[in-house]
Design a protein that fits this description.
It is built from ten helices and 14 strands. It is of the alpha/beta class. The strands form four sheets. Strands 2-10-9-8-5-3-4 form a seven-stranded mixed β-sheet. The protein has a three-stranded antiparallel β-sheet with strand order 11-12-14, with helices on one face. It binds pyridoxal-5'-phosphate (PLP).
Length: 358
């Protein structure tokens, strides 16, 4: 990102400058004069890097050896199919629907000819709140319970792990590494890298080893967690550049002070923005305060005729990609790990000036 330009995109998203600077160097020379774009995933240099990056990632999240960490292709969407194919046995599977991404995951599971039990679907409040857990229709016999920790489009975040007896599967595409978590609270965590962990092309899966022991014989190897784990995420060609970028981001997070430091900066940024929006007469955030996301902050202008002019003036001030998702409209500021506090302060200054001119 150039100086004084802030990119509020929901993903692919802004990267730390030290990471993009380093990428420029290794595009020229990663290994004996060869670019990172040219090297084999099976080269010694890349394999050494891959092993080191997994160690750093495990250290960041304090991941025990009861879990495999996989570095896969296919995007988080691919996991919407791998999860039901690998983890469903004979019972139904539970899905909590809190926004567009968990809904899509439930639809993908239903296409696998398994019984999908919708625990709760908060579409009746336009995904601005989560139904109270007392009212959820949980199935005690389900093979797993699936939810999305942070709905990137709607800006809804479930801040604490769900306490449930069945294996817990969580889409953390927009929140993994934005704060410390207790990995042992979960059975499967997955995340696309292009928000807090690098660029598109890599999906990280953290999965309890005992869950992948039961071999899903009927699947092709590419769909089986067991085969990916056995081949150390090199069953087929690995996403070399995306994986390398993630490794640089892991190092950057450690240099900043780890996940505790990420949590602090993310909480500060989101509080600043929510506080301003809540006190303004022009902007509004519709999400219930308990479930407001730390990283995706949607807001609407009270007069939506002003949307286009807001966006074009924001760009003139160096503030990009504030348009909300096409399915919900309005605006959305995504303020992931790599967005500095100054970016949010600049956004608030712009929003204040814009409001004062109306
Ligand atoms: C929460 C969440 N889950 C899943 C996805 C799908 O990710 P991908 O496009 O990498 O398949 C996204 C993408 O933005 C997301 O935000």
């Amino acid at each position: 990102m150039s100086e004084n330009i802030y990119n509020f995109s929901a993903g692919p998203a802004t990267l730390p400058k030290s990471v993009t600077d380093h990428l420029k160097l290794i595009i020229n020379d990663f290994d004996q004069g060869m670019s990172i774009l040219e090297v084999s995933h099976r080269s010694k240099a890349f394999k050494d890097f891959a092993s080191e990056s997994e160690t750093t990632f495990r250290r960041l999240l304090n991941i025990s050896d009861k879990y495999e960490v996989l570095f896969l292709q296919g995007g988080a969407t691919h996991q919407f199919t791998m999860i039901p194919q690998n983890l469903s046995r004979n019972g139904p599977v539970d899905y909590l629907i809190t926004g567009g991404w968990s809904k899509k995951a439930a639809n993908y599971a239903a296409q696998q000819q398994i019984e999908v039990n919708i625990v709760s679907d908060s579409s009746d409040n336009n995904y601005t709140d989560v139904d109270n857990q007392d009212s959820w229709n949980i199935n005690a016999d389900s093979d797993y319970f699936y939810y999305c920790a942070n709905e990137t489009v709607h800006g809804i975040e479930i801040h604490n792990p769900i306490n449930i007896d069945t294996p817990l599967v969580c889409d953390m595409s927009s929140t993994l590494c934005t704060r410390p978590i207790e990995v042992s609270d979960f059975d499967v965590i997955f995340a696309g890298a292009q928000k807090n962990l690098g660029i598109a092309g890599l999906t990280i899966v953290i999965i309890k080893k005992e869950l992948i022991k039961q071999k899903a014989e009927h699947l092709n190897p590419i769909m089986r967690y067991e085969d990916h784990a056995k081949d150390k995420s090199m069953l087929n060609t690995s996403p070399v550049f995306a994986w390398y970028t993630a490794g640089l981001v892991f190092d950057w997070i450690e240099e900043q002070g780890g996940l505790q430091a990420m949590a602090q900066i993310n909480q500060t940024k989101s509080q600043l923005l929510y506080e301003y929006i809540d006190n303004s007469d022009l902007y509004q955030n519709p999400v219930s305060k308990k479930y407001r996301s730390w990283v995706n902050i949607p807001f609407i202008l009270k007069d939506n005729d002003l949307d286009d002019i807001f966006l074009s003036q924001a760009e003139k001030s160096g503030l990009y990609n504030l348009k909300g998702h096409r399915t919900v409209g309005g605006m959305r500021a995504s303020v992931y790990n790599a967005m500095p506090v100054e970016g949010v302060e600049m956004l608030i200054t712009f929003m204040k000036d814009f409001e004062n001119k109306q």
